[in-house]
Prior knowledge:
167 residues; mainly alpha; 10 helices; 65% helix
Amino acid sequence: EHKDLLGDDFDGYRGHIYRVLTYTMHFLKETEFRKAIEAALVYHDIGLWTDSVLDYLDPSYERAKESLSASFTEEEMELIKNIIIYHHKITAFEGDNQKEVEAVRKADWIDATQGLVSHGMSNANIRFTYEKIPPNGFYETLAGFGPKLHGYNVAAMLWEIRKIYYL
């Protein structure tokens, strides 16, 4: 659905989604909410492209809500919302579907930091995942969003991006 929008960034973002899903399922083992998690991951960063903002969590959720509300239950939509809004949370998430949101939160931190933050995931597992699902320029794309949107105004970048992190 977003291939044209993402253009050259499509393979990198798709790889990020698959790596985060891989780590998530490692933490969860099983869940009745896998389809909702998969849907949330498709949208969790999409606001970077759809709304061209560094404060992209709310826009990402709005795009998910527009596209997914008819296909998921109210409980699943709440899970999708919590995954999208809190996937950059620095401390543990507490709330409905805590197990699933926490698994995704940890998984996204692993991938976004390229394993620097591992949340107990072994380096061997992280390396293996990168070998099977390569980055395809994803990290360069992320690093390029700030300058693309704000030139080299580092203060503007930091001011906007600060809103995506929660304690």
